[in-house]
Amino acid sequence: MDNQLFCSICHKPYVMQKYEYGTSFVNVPVAQCNCEEKALKDAEEEEKERERVRRMDALNLPPIFAPYRLKDLTCEHSGDALPYVEGFKPRRSKGLFIYGPNGNGKTTLAAVICKELAYRGYRVLFTTMTEMLDKMEFGIGSNRALQAQRVLKELLTYDFVMFDDYGRENYTPLRLQNVFQIVDRLYKYRVVFGVTVNPECMDRLAHIPELAAIDDRMRQVLMQWEFVKPSLRGAQK
User: ∠ at Cα 17 (15, 20), nearest 5°?
Assistant: First the structure.
């Protein structure tokens, strides 16, 4: 037959099957194998894997956190993390204010939450405020202002942003302005974000009057997970 169709993979011929369509019947070519269906599913899985790799690259996660999984963590609030991840809703969930002394697992927990969200298909960024401020200040004159706007615009493309070690930044008048812009932009556009912070940094931030407005916005959109146990680093010595 001139119009005979064949499987593009195994080359078996299609067969014509008659189907009722309204008051008449139509002949439809039907494959006698599942080669093409399987190839399509394989291609879809490969694309999902490529997208997963892209999300993990965009995550910006330091390699040291690669071995950690949520189910393996035993630090404080590790039991709160899975419900948070499973119930996460972009633009709707509360963010995280992870507070406590150095060395008790805050950063590891924050990093693993980011990784779990990325695995589930969300666009996530793990970073520091210093890294973002450095990016915003790259350039000279008007180019610097444009670069700052590009950084702010890019932040809005994420579903979740985690700033590790908030409060360690060296502040200048420009940096105070930029950190306010970062938090204010995330706040206004409902991008879910979080911070990890220790008491020393919080005390330092409390003495910078210009950061009061930032603190006010954070209190509105972040829920606090406080770590109270002593440093795990000290316990390992």
Answer: 165
Average pLDDT rounded to a whole number, residues 185-206:
95
- The CA distance from 198 to 231, in Å, is 11
Is 190 part of any domain?
Answer: yes
Is 204 contained in some domain?
A: yes
Residues 6+ apart with CB under 8 A from 188: none
Q: Is residue 16 part of a domain?
A: no
Q: Identify the helix (H) or strand (E) that includes residue 111.
A: helix 106-119
- Spell out a b/e string for 69-99, using b for 16 or more CB atoms within 10 Å of the CB, else e: ebeebebbbbeebeebbeebeeeebebbbbb
Q: What residues pair up with 91 in beta bridges, in sequence order?
A: none
| Residue 220: inside a domain | yes
Q: What is the CATH number of the domain that holds 116?
A: 3.40.50.300
Between CA 62 and CA 127 the distance in angstroms is 9
Domain interval for residue 204: 53-236
Report how far residue 190's alpha carbon sits from residue 91's, in angstroms, rounded to the nearest whole number: 5
CB atoms near residue 202 (< 10 Å): 14
DSSP annotation of 19: E
Q: How much is the pTM?
A: 0.79
pLDDT tens-place string over residues 53-88: 677 777 889 999 989 998 889 899 999 999 999 999
For residues 100, 104, 106 and 109, what is the CA-based torsion angle, rounded to 10 degrees? Answer: -150
Domain total in the chain: 1
